[in-house]
Design goal:
Layout (H helix, E strand, L loop, with lengths): L2 H9 L17 H10 L8 H4 L6 E4 L11 E5 L3 E5 L5 E5 L9 E5 L5 H8 L16 H8 L5 E6 L14 H10 L1 H25 L4 E5 L13 H21 L5 E4 L8 H6 L4 E3 L9 H8 L4 E3 L4 H6 L1 H18 L2 E2 L12 H13 L3
Length: 364
Amino acid sequence: MNARQRFNRIMHFQPVDRPPVWSVEGVTEGAVRRWIKDGTFPEGMALEHVIKLEEPTIVRLDTDPLPAFVKQTVDENERWITTTDEYGFTVRTLKEQSVSPRVYYYVGACVRDRDDWQALKKRYDPADPRRMPRAWGPDLWAHYDTCTSPVELRIDWGPGRGPKNGYTMGLEPFLDAVLSDPTLVKEMFDFWAEFVIACARPWLEHVHFDYAFFVEDGIAYKNSTLVSPSIYRDLWVPALRKVVDVLLSYGIDVIAHYTSGNICPLIPTLLDIGISLFFPLEAAAGMDALALRGEFGRDIRLIGNISRQALMDGPQAIDEEFERKALPLMADGGYVPAVDDMITPDITFQSYSYYIEKVRSFRC
């Protein structure tokens, strides 16, 4: 059984030999540097050659602005650099975080009013040939169709970097607009849905995807969601439903939603429109995969929820977390174990390796 077959059987609640070894949040550069400094990680080796994961093959729709915004340095000191990035956002990052995944701090946005939005839309032409890979054609399609790992279609939901930066407006101005100018917000979502569908169609026509997922990172925080379920249904759902219906029409029956934070209030609404897989299920934000399975049964699929705190605490805590959550969920199906947040320098290499080997050695 290869990784692709294994994933599809899990997502359709069929028995498998073992769980896949996945990481949904990644390992930060700071963590690897600390491990090298501690002497626990071999210097000069790439992480993927030391920790052999069985991750999916990701096709990310190119929904970036074209032309991109010109990257410029706004401010800089010994530790921090503030830049305007390719999305038109001004962000502040630590210099030591030179590769992804990075933690960034939002400073400013490119859309302040309707005129700015009209100007920005010109950068989102789905017919721009630069959106397609240079290898586009039968050889590339065959490559994806013969992959032994699951092939996923990633859809960034919202122009720019999504809710974390407030759909190009900045979070607070965007939330103000939700209340003061919902017509503009709805217009933005409707435009984005049609844009995404147009970008996705060539892929959907030629490649078989095992699942698709919406990246809406930042729509939730520690205790709840940024907007109420009723506002989400009114403004978000009509546009989301358009895209979901197209995905379903091409036979993609596993459609996922990715966000940090507590997404629980929105799950019934998302299930209603055909989004059934959720990750990474941050335990520190109150997400509980066992409780979700208890509430929604096999209508819901889950990835993650292995608390990062358990890896910080060490092997005994990892054992307890794995046995309490992963064992019953894997027995029921529709679940892939994964750590619920980024691996940061406060997690030792020994602890991370212990967790990975625990998953790798488990037999269903």
